[in-house]
Amino acid sequence: MSYLEYTVKTVPTGLRKALYLNWALVVLLIAVSSVGFLMLYSVAGGALQPWALPQIQRFVLGLGIMFIFAFVPIWFWRNISGVAYLVSLLLLVLVDVAGSVGMGAQRWIDLGFMRLQPSELAKITLVMLLASYYDWLDVRKTSRPLWVLIPVILILIPTALVMKQPDLGTAILLLLGGGVVMFLAGVSVWYFGVVLGAGVGLVAAVMTSRGTSWQLLKDYQFKRIDIFLDPGSDPLGAGYHISQAKIALGSGGWVGRGFLQGTQSRLNFLPEKHTDFIFTTLGEEFGFVGTVSLLMLYALIIVFCVHSAMNNKDRFAALLTLGVAATFFFYFAVNMSMVMGLAPVVGVPLPLVSYGGSAMLVLMAAFGLVQSAHIHRPRGR
Amino acid sequence: MRRSPKDTEDSSRKISRRALLLGVGQAALVAGLTLRMRQMQVVEADQYRMLSDQNRINLRLIPPARGLIFDRNGILLAGNEQNFSAVIVREDAGGDVDGVLHRLADLIPLSEDDISRTLRDVKRHSAFVPITVSDRLTWDELSRVAVNAPALPGVTPEVGLSRHYPLIEDMAHVVGYVGPVSESDLARIDSPDPLLQIPKFQIGKVGVEALKEDDLRGTAGTKQIEVNSVGRVMRELDRKDGQPGENLQLTIDAKLQNYALARLGDQSAAVVAIEVATGDILACASAPSFDPNKFVRGISTVDYQDYMTNDHRPLANKTVQGIYPPGSTFKIVTALGALRSGALKLNDKIRCPGYIDVSGRRFHCWNHGGHGVLDLEGALTQSCDVFFYTVAQRCGIEVISAMAETMGLGVKHDLPMSAIAEGLNPNKAWKKKYRKQDWLIGDTINAAIGQGYVLSSPLQLAVMVMRLAAGASVLPRLIKSVNGVEAPIVPARPLDIDPAALGAVRAGIWGVVNGARGTARGARIEDPHMIMAGKTGTSQVRNISAAERETGVVGNDKVPWNQRDHALFVGYAPYDAPKVAVSVVVEHGGADHQAAPISRDVLLFALNGGMPPLSAFPASMRSAVDAQQKSMQLRDFSASTVARART
Known about the structure:
The complex is a heterodimer.
Chain A: H1 17-20, H2 23-43, H3 52-71, H4 74-98, E1 100-102, E2 105-110, E3 115-116, H5 118-136, H6 145-164, H7 168-185, H8 189-209, H9 219-229, H10 240-251, H11 263-266, H12 278-310, H13 315-339, H14 357-375
Antiparallel strand pairs in A: 1-2, 2-3
Chain B: H1 5-43, H2 45-56, E1 57-62, E2 69-70, E3 76-89, H3 97-105, H4 112-124, E4 130-137, H5 139-147, E5 155-164, H6 172-175, E6 177-180, H7 183-188, E7 202-206, H8 207-211, H9 213-217, E8 221-227, E9 233-240, E10 248-250, H10 254-264, E11 269-275, E12 281-287, H11 292-297, H12 301-309, H13 331-341, E13 350-352, E14 355-358, E15 361-364, E16 372-374, H14 376-382, H15 385-395, H16 397-406, H17 428-435, H18 441-448, H19 458-470, E17 479-482, E18 485-486, H20 499-514, E19 533-539, H21 546-551, E20 566-573, E21 580-586, H22 595-608, H23 622-631
Helix pairs in contact in B: 10-22, 13-15, 13-16, 13-20, 14-20, 15-18
């Protein structure tokens, strides 16, 4: 379906588009981000610097980007999805070549005013490309091996590049995000069964490769898996992160110690308290009520996205919206599982809450795409 | 490519179906996460809360202020002094600790060694740990550091408390000193007091400080502080103040103690003065003394070597630790023992030919010409040896030994002082047990005049003469009150001796000082209200060989100092109403026998409550005494801290 086929007259134009924005989604995004500002303010010891204020500035910038992206017709995004994908691949390669080394992993390109993590960008461009691929592909060919192989390769290229950085968390998100789009597009469940089986085999292979010459993961990645399986084994060493995170979360109780009263993060017992482990501070200061509230806000964002996609007859728009929503879902689900000791520590931030420019801007851009899909959805007929 | 509407419809339905499946999966995951949160934050919350508190709350001890020690008149003997020090915190020093320290060295005395030690300590600890650069700064130095603070980033002046002994060496042997807890202290002390675990916490090492440690220390306060993961103190959560140590008041009269020590001068000697009625130890001076403050600060090797190599042994407390053959002062015991056993009657007379032969051995009187016929009073006055050889033979060693114990010799008195010696009252069983030999009659004869095996400390001798004066077994005491509560005086039992016998012995030693033939006539007191009675003694340090005896014994002034005899004196005054008893031992002081004049002067000072008036001395001596009094350097107590109105 080309843009000519849209019943253009029913699609809002100009500034009138603002009326057709999914405002509920905007409010939810602001709410979730505000939780982030509060927590960043708290972990800095009750100060706007060094995290809360830059985060607010980026969120405002992100809102601007979201509105711009939202006002651009969805077909434009479909048409440039291939280019966007190639650009992000190029940036990923560039990171390997020119990226700075930070925290033992090469992950970003210094743009001067901010550090760009191309892996964040890749999560969205991959979803865009796959959505437009399935929009373009004849539905009847969806499950044919050749036409399945192509998206698999499209997923594996950025995944491999990200793994090389190494960034296990993003690699997993890429696989899950791409896989979800394929699943939604209708690829036969048998493929997923096979992949699942292969995955189990791979895990077995990875675990047996340990200590051999063809070891598949870095030593620290193995260590993290060990610690996930038994955090008590090294409570003051590498297991320290998980133990302290669980103490922070658990000590919150029903309603928490109160805003700015969390001791674990303010006393530096928590590692990366402003990024990957920020959820623990929320748990400590606002307790079960606080953590469940944030989870519900996240869930509502997903619900609104899914609702929007369900009412969108444009295949690209629906797939893109669901793909973005799924990626967003995996972000917070993996992060929460990680800090609660349900998954290994793989380095996934809490979306819109953790301190970080790339993730914030890319996510806001992605929700811009979702908004664009919402505004420009086929109407009438 | 074009698609039919059906395609689109189809794919839309497929997306919807798959989306629903995905949604169910996601909802299940969200439910799972919620359950997990509930498990951690609701079900197991208490456990995690406990772990969290353990993480962050640290209990620190607040050391209590150590109890003060005063003399009987409230003069401060041991106090807590503010101690100024400079500390440096690396993270505040702006990276240039070395530069800051060198700038600091321009302001306060700081050697290169100090600087390198500080640099080493600074590197060894975390950036926020304060490291002491210099201890015991003067107020001036502290002010200089404070004024120059902008040029000294990271350096802060600090004020702490440390033990101080304002009377310096006067009370060193009695009060002792404190020092940091050592490994051996911890092994010795069976106390769970957590204070002892504080690094550099000071406890009593010697003297009252050590023996009354439990009273003086007080109990620790606690503060709960919140620390972060690297131990930095973030804030104080709770504070419970401790109980300061109890203040002790000693029976010592600091002015008398100071006078006694000054009167002993540079001799190696000891003085003990006791109040007759109560047993209060008024002075307990051992000369030479030492500066306990040096030990509190950590004594330098040079100073310590000085003390250790000094042949006058300044670190030894000769009053309780030094044991000497009591010499003729022991004749008081021999006389009382013989009288109590009935072996000697009050009017018995014995002839002294200058010697006595016992089982083939000849024992000489100090007066080789002999004293002629003497009664007990005369024998004491002239200190006739033969008289006491004879009565000892009659009554036997067991009687003498038992009397010595009655008089407080050979008994370890229960006083809070270090290294109190028991001394020795020899008897047959003792010799059998420790020397594996039978008791010989010669041993009894030697013991009769306080030679041979008999050993007593100046404290014991003072107790002996005090009991003679009091006629009761008064116990010596050193602690007058604790926190203002008077220590109870145990009522003294009357001595199990016939008062007539006591009177005879007292009359005998009155003669020693006041009689025409008395051995200490030169030390008599003229003031009729302060008449002194006492007994001289000389104890041999070297054995005089038979060959030397034949060629004539070399005089005390002709042998090296450390081979001269010890000079002893025990006495009390006033004779008719005894108030103070005293004992003096001057080591190797046999040449000019200073023990009696020192005793006289200490007694007079004690009775007079200050420098004795010249009128108390015999007219012929007044100019010499006057010159001596004027040359003495006594401490000025007008600047001393005195306890306010104590009960």
